[in-house]
Amino acid sequence: MTSLTTDAAGNVYASGRFNGAMRFGSEAENQLVASRGTSNVFLYKFSPSGTILWARKAGGTGSASASDVAIDAAGNTYLTGDFMGSATFGTITLNAASATDRDLYVAKFDPRGIVIWAQRVGTTNNDSGNAIAVDAAGRVAVGGFINKRVVSSSYESTAYLACYGADGTPLWSREITPSLPGDYSVPDVAFDGRGGLYAIGDYQGTLTLGSTPLPLASKQSAFVARYTGEGTAQWAGAGIAEGTGSDDLCHFDRIGTDVAGNAYLFGSARGDVSFGSLNVVGGTNRNIIEAKLNSGSVLAAARTPEATLTLTVYPNPASDQVTLVLPHGGGELTITDGLGRRVRTQVLPAVAGAIELGLGGLAPGLYHLRARLGNGQTAATQLLVR
Asked: Which PANTHER family does the record associate with it (predicted)?
């Protein structure tokens, strides 16, 4: 299973790929059988109580997979991924540009699971859809990559973004090509409810989206762009990897929007990262990053959520006193009980190393110790008090 989503009524849609035969539940009519010797796409719809409403498969002469699924307000389902050879969606058969490489597909199903339309995009190399989104007008956006090939023992591909009308008519497509070659794609897309479309991806070197040149990226960095309904890049921003490590990077994985038109980014980074005038201090490990863009395209907030280190404590269990080993000096220790109630806070010394922690006043039970260290990182552990 590769993707799950829900609709306003609470129905659940699950997609992925399978070999042989599969089914959820015991009903024989929900069993799907893949084409012999290949993997096929599956798409299931469940009621809010978990009852299977329908099950569908797609595939053919070569393997096929599903990457993402989306739902519109009318209950139509949209699917994207890739296939090799040929793939049949309902009564529609798509044929890849090359028998040995994969093509991108996008398909629309009605609320009963009947295929309305299906489209493909393909070069003579590998192409795939990573993400799909639909807006209130029925426009469908797909992000992925095209022309993926092996060059000098590594992959190179072009990030790809396309938009379709409600009837499956291609409206526009964009190829996003930085100055330095690399394995690029669009991992996620999102409509903002105001006629715009957000897309994210990676780049290295220089990249201009619309009339916006992004900062020079000497290491793998990430972009976010807002496109108009006609496919014009209205503005763009970047998360630039600025650390000194040879493998420092910034990567956006997901993007979402709210009713006010704000966008929210989720990804990861190693080393320091700059978001316009905002900076996130990283480390040698790959940490989670989040960022918020306001409706005027300014990157309004960025932070590194808790990349939790292990806090060493001994003895454990204990009754009177424990030794706590701090990986970094400074900060504050918080102790919470098994119900999540804060029972103690303590300022930590400015230097790293071992400190003694008295347990007087703590009733027997399981406690959570969380240290917000002076360098911004978090270290945590559990302690059993007897």
From this structure: CELL SURFACE GLYCOPROTEIN (S-LAYER PROTEIN)-LIKE PROTEIN, PHYTASE-LIKE DOMAIN-CONTAINING PROTEIN
* Domain range list for the chain: 3-303, 308-385
3-state SS of 257-322 is: ECCCCCEEEEEEEECCEEECCEEECCCCCEEEEEEEECCCCCEEEEECCCCEEECEEECCCECCEE
Per-residue pLDDT of the chain (386 residues; tens, 9 = 90+): 899 999 999 999 999 999 888 877 666 666 787 776 689 999 999 999 999 999 999 998 889 999 999 999 999 999 999 999 999 999 999 999 988 899 999 999 999 999 999 999 999 899 999 999 999 999 999 999 999 887 766 779 999 999 999 999 999 999 999 999 999 999 999 999 888 999 999 999 999 999 999 999 999 999 999 999 999 999 899 999 987 788 889 999 999 998 888 899 999 888 888 887 777 766 677 888 888 887 655 454 454 544 457 789 999 998 889 999 998 888 889 898 776 678 898 999 988 899 999 998 898 888 888 888 887 777 888 898 98
- Helical H runs in the chain? none
Burial class (CB in 10 A: 0-12, 13-18, 19+), 296: exposed
Report yes or no: 295 and 262 within 8 Å, Cβ to Cβ: yes
211 CB burial (10 A radius; 0-12, 13-18, 19+): exposed
What token pair was written down for 120? 């493909």
Q: What is the DSSP annotation of 212-231?
A: EEPPPEEEEEEEEEEE-TTS
Structurally, at CATH architecture level, domain 308-385 sits in Sandwich (2.60)
